[in-house]
From TrEMBL:
It is an enzyme of class 2 (transferase). PROSITE patterns: GIDA_2. It comes from Thalassococcus arenae. Keywords: Cytoplasm, FAD, Flavoprotein, Methyltransferase, NAD, NADP, Transferase, tRNA processing. It catalyses: uridine(54) in tRNA + (6R)-5,10-methylene-5,6,7,8-tetrahydrofolate + NADPH + H(+) = 5-methyluridine(54) in tRNA + (6S)-5,6,7,8-tetrahydrofolate + NADP(+); uridine(54) in tRNA + (6R)-5,10-methylene-5,6,7,8-tetrahydrofolate + NADH + H(+) = 5-methyluridine(54) in tRNA + (6S)-5,6,7,8-tetrahydrofolate + NAD(+). Belongs to the MnmG family. TrmFO subfamily. It comes from the Bacteria. It is found in: Cytoplasm. Its EC number is 2.1.1.74. Coiled coil: none annotated. FAD binds at residues 10-15. This is Methylenetetrahydrofolate--tRNA-(uracil-5-)-methyltransferase TrmFO.
C-alpha cells in the first residue's frame, strides 16, 4: 500500500459514485473537478452530479428491464446516485426521472460534508506517475487531458457527438391543444399516469414539420471531426434524414395515447414532453436532441401544436463525447494496462447513460478502495448487470468495432432451457434478473468477510 489517498478526476455521475463508495469504505478521497474554472459546452453549473442531457434514469422495472436491474443492484450496494435519485423522483410513468437541480445539490452536499472527502477545483492535465487514481472525466474530457491520454495509449481517441434536448417553460404550453398522459396510462398513481405532456400532429402538420427539420440551419462540424452519433442520442434531424417515417416510429410515435380534446381522432404523430423539475415548471422535449442552430430551433419547434408560444429555458445543442477503446486498454479491474495505478470509470470507458456511468464508478471506487486497504475484492459476477457491463467493456466487446453501450440483456449469458424469440422474452428476462440478483447479493456479502490480501 503506497498511497492511502484516492484521487478521482471528474465530479459527474461516475466520479461522484466512485468517491462515495471509496469514502464509505474508510478511504480518504480527493475529487478533482475543473468546473467552474474550466467550463464545458454542456454543463451549466459547478455542482457535482450535474445532469447535462436528459433528467431520466430510464426504466425502473428491475424484473423485466436491464437498466431497472442496474438500479436495483446499485441500491443494494448503497449507491449515492440511486438513493439521491429516488429522493428527488418526479412522475414519469415507469421511468425514474429526477429534479435535476435538487439532485445535483444533494449529491454535492453529501460529498462535501463527508469526513473522508475533499474537493479540489482544478484541472488535471496529465496522467500521474504515482498514487491511486480514477479518471471519470466523462464525455467532455478537456483537450489537455485528452491529449495526455492519447499520448499514453498510443491510439487515436474515438469521438462521437451527444446532442442535448431543449427544455420548455410549462406555463408557455397551450394545454387547449396538448394534454397530460403517460403512454398506455402507465404508472400506479394518477400523477404517474399523467407524467407527460402530449402535443398531437395530423399528417399534414407532420409532413410540414419534417420538411422544416430537413432544411433547417444546423451546426457544422469542424474540419477533421466526424459525426458518429450514438444511436440513443441521435439528433432528430439525423433521424429524419434516415426516412420521413423514422420519427413516427421513434420519439413521435402516437401509440398508447388518446387526445381528450378529440378522442375519436387518432394523431398521426405525437411530441412528448417530460417533467424536468419537482415544481413542474419545466418540461424537456423527449427524444428531441438536436444540432440545429438556436434560431432554427425556435422556428421549427414552435410549429409543434401546443408549442406555438413556447418559451425555452434551454435550447438544444451538441457536444463531443470522448471514450477509450477499453477492450484493448483496460484490464478486468478497469486499470490502464500500461499504468495499473490508474483506473477509468464512467462514459469515458465506453458505457452510455447516467446509470451505466454511475455503476462503473461504483465498481471503480470499490476496486480502488480495496487496493488501498489491502483487501482482496471478489471478481464481479458476470451474471449481474454490473458484471455483464464491465465484462463487455473490458474484453467482451469486439475491439475493432467498439462503440458506447447501454446495459441490455443482450450482454447477459443465456439461461439454459429457456426459449428465445419474442414469445419467451418475459420468462427469459425474469430469469436473467433473478439470477443477477442472487449473484450480486452473494458478491456484496463476500466483501463484508473478504480476507486481507497478503502484504
Amino acid at each position: 500500500m503506497t498511497d492511502s489517498t484516492l484521487h478521482i478526476v471528474g465530479g459527474g455521475m461516475a466520479g461522484s459514485e466512485a468517491a462515495w463508495q471509496a469514502a464509505q469504505s474508510g478511504v480518504r478521497v480527493v475529487i478533482h473537478e475543473m468546473r467552474p474554472n474550466i467550463k464545458t459546452f454542456a454543463h451549466q453549473t459547478d455542482k457535482l452530479g450535474e445532469m447535462v442531457c436528459s433528467n431520466s434514469f430510464r426504466s425502473d422495472d428491475h424484473e423485466q428491464n436491464a437498466v431497472g436491474l442496474l438500479h436495483w443492484e446499485m441500491l443494494q450496494a448503497g449507491s449515492l446516485v440511486m438513493q439521491t435519485g429516488y429522493a428527488h423522483r418526479l412522475p414519469a410513468g415507469g421511468a425514474l426521472a429526477v429534479d435535476r437541480e435538487a439532485f445535483s445539490d444533494a449529491i454535492t452536499a453529501a460529498l462535501a460534508s463527508h469526513p473522508n472527502v475533499s474537493i479540489s477545483k482544478e484541472e488535471i492535465t496529465s496522467l500521474p506517475d504515482s498514487g491511486q487514481w480514477i479518471f471519470a472525466t466523462g464525455p467532455l474530457t478537456s483537450d489537455a487531458l485528452g491529449a495526455a491520454i492519447q499520448a499514453e495509449t498510443g491510439a487515436d481517441r474515438l469521438a462521437f457527438f451527444d446532442a442535448i434536448a431543449p427544455i420548455v417553460h410549462a406555463d408557455s404550453i397551450d394545454m387547449s391543444k396538448a394534454w397530460l398522459q403517460s403512454r398506455y396510462d402507465k404508472g400506479e398513481t394518477e400523477e404517474e399516469q399523467k407524467a407527460y405532456i402530449n402535443c398531437p400532429m395530423d399528417r399534414a402538420q407532420y409532413d410540414i414539420f419534417i420538411d422544416a427539420l430537413l432544411t433547417a440551419d444546423k451546426t457544422e462540424f469542424h474540419e477533421g471531426e466526424t459525426a458518429g452519433y450514438f444511436d440513443g442520442c441521435l439528433p432528430i434531424e439525423v433521424m429524419a434524414e434516415r426516412g420521413r417515417e423514422t420519427l413516427r416510429h421513434g420519439p413521435m410515435k402516437p401509440v398508447g395515447l388518446t387526445n381528450p380534446h378529440a378522442p375519436d381522432v387518432k394523431p398521426h404523430a405525437v411530441v412528448q414532453l417530460r417533467r424536468d423539475n419537482a415544481l413542474g415548471t419545466l418540461y424537456n422535449i423527449v427524444g428531441f436532441q438536436t444540432k440545429m442552430k438556436y434560431g432554427a430551433q425556435k422556428s421549427v419547434f414552435t410549429m409543434i401544436p401546443g408549442l406555438e408560444k413556447a418559451s425555452f429555458a434551454r435550447l438544444g445543442g451538441i457536444h463531443r463525447n470522448t471514450f477509450l477503446n477499453s477492450p484493448t486498454l483496460l484490464d478486468a479491474q478497469m486499470r490502464l494496462r500500461s499504468r495499473p495505478h490508474i483506473r477509468f470509470a464512467g462514459q469515458i470507458t465506453g458505457v452510455e447513460g447516467y446509470v451505466e456511468s454511475a455503476a462503473m464508478g461504483l465498481l471503480a471506487g470499490r476496486m480502488a478502495a480495496a487496493d488501498i486497504l489491502g483487501r482482496r475484492l471478489p471478481e464481479v459476477p458476470q451474471d449481474s448487470a454490473h458484471g455483464a457491463l464491465i465484462h463487455h467493456i473490458t474484453g467482451g466487446a469486439e475491439a475493432k468495432t467498439f462503440q458506447p453501450m447501454n446495459v441490455n440483456f443482450g450482454l447477459f449469458r443465456p439461461v439454459d432451457g429457456l426459449k428465445g424469440g419474442r414469445r419467451g422474452r418475459r420468462d427469459r428476462y425474469k430469469a436473467y434478473t433473478d439470477r443477477a440478483k442472487a449473484a450480486w447479493q452473494t458478491w456484496l456479502a463476500a466483501q463484508a468477510s473478504a480476507p486481507h490480501a497478503a502484504q
